[in-house]
């Protein structure tokens, strides 16, 4: 494939860039994909074969003595472990291929759009501690961030990452006859985290939290160091307060910042960009020189090329990449008071 069919305004003019800068490298990318795919198949086959061989040994040396159930367990459990190992090994190679595709294509996309950079591994990180202290995200024990976009749009600096936040807990039981430890993990957040620059620093912390009804009352009482440990701000904006509640260390400053037009725009942003969750998918806040936003999202961000898809079929993935970047731009547009439709 040497043609790119533009679909959205953000892609206008990219077809020529694709023809001159991406298409000539598709053969090289396809050879790389084929090599990585071969490794993935070999590793997955070895894991499955190992699980099957171990299961066969269990059946031959004892498990079969327990009848059909013993045969099924003795063979099935090792095979299941082998299947899990095969999946993880395949996923490792799939991530490797996706990274190779991104390394080739994303610099071209960023050059085309201008004032934009991309880092798949998010080496510069993201200010998670600031967001947690503000209360935009909950306390977590483990995090993953990736696909970091950083740039300027409408003279507004921004950075966005895909993030997953987890809470890991361990429960131990120990006595003379039993010594066990159970570990559970809960996903607290999956979606996009954004930091958007503000024209003038905000001299206080402001949290815009979802309205959990009685749950908010409890967190106001036991907020500790989280954002809800601050006084509640009465905004007087009925539509905003149907979905959110505001808290600030200085309620008067917060009321000046949270002007009616801003609150109306934020509600509309949350409904339009929150996907199936609508306004329930968004929490936000101001801290110093930044406006922070957490937007829950199920779909992957900046997803480039599956391992089983030939490299010359990358056009559909590129449309998705442009749509993801357009989402970040639309959010900034909406914060500026404009409301383009997706």
Structure described in brief:
With 342 residues, this protein is α+β, with helices and mostly antiparallel strands. The chain contains 9 helices and 7 strands, in the order H-H-H-E-H-E-E-E-H-E-H-E-H-H-E-H. Helices cover 45% and strands 26% of the residues.
Computed over alpha carbons, the radius of gyration is 25 Å
| Series of H and E elements | HHHEHEEEHEHEHHEH
Distance between the termini: 28 Å
Percent range of helical residues: 40-55%
The assigned structural class equals: alpha+beta
Shape: flat
State the low-pLDDT regions, or none: 222-226
Can you summarize the main beta sheet?
7 strands, antiparallel
User: Hey, roughly how much beta strand do the residues contain?
Assistant: 25-35%
Count of separate DSSP helical elements:
9
Number of separate strands: 7
Mean pLDDT: 87
Give short descriptive properties of this protein.
alpha+beta, 9 helices, 7 strands, 26% strand
């Amino acid at each position: 494939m040497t043609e790119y069919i533009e679909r959205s305004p953000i892609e206008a003019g990219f077809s020529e860039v694709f023809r001159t800068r991406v298409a000539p490298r598709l053969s090289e990318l396809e050879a790389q994909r084929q090599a990585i795919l071969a490794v993935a198949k070999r590793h997955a086959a070895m894991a499955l074969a190992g699980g099957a061989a171990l299961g066969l040994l269990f059946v031959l040396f004892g498990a079969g003595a327990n009848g059909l159930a013993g045969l099924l367990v003795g063979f099935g459990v090792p095979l299941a472990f082998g299947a899990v190992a095969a999946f993880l090994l395949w996923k490792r190679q799939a991530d490797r291929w996706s990274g190779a595709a991104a390394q080739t294509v994303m610099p071209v996309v960023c050059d085309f759009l201008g004032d934009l950079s991309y880092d798949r591994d998010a080496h510069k990180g993201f200010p998670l501690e600031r967001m947690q202290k503000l209360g935009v995200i909950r306390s977590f024990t483990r995090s993953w961030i990736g696909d970091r976009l950083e740039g300027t749009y409408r003279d507004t600096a921004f950075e966005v990452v895909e993030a997953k936040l987890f809470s890991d807990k361990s429960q131990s039981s120990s006595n003379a006859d039993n010594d066990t430890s159970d570990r559970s993990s809960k996903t607290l957040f999956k979606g996009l985290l954004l930091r958007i620059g503000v024209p003038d620093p905000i001299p206080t912390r402001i949290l815009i939290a979802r309205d959990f009804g009685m749950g908010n009352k409890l967190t106001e009482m036991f907020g500790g160091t989280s954002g809800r440990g601050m006084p509640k701000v009465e905004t007087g904006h009925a539509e905003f307060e149907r979905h959110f509640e505001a808290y600030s260390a200085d309620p008067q400053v917060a009321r000046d910042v949270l002007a009616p037009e801003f609150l109306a725009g934020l509600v509309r942003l949350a409904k339009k960009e929150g996907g199936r969750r609508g306004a329930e998918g968004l929490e936000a806040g101001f801290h110093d020189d930044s406006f922070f936003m957490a937007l829950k999202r199920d779909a992957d961000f900046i997803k480039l090329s599956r391992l089983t898809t030939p490299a010359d079929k990358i056009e559909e993935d590129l449309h998705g990449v442009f749509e993801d970047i357009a989402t970040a731009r639309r959010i900034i547009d909406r914060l500026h008071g404009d409301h383009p439709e997706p």
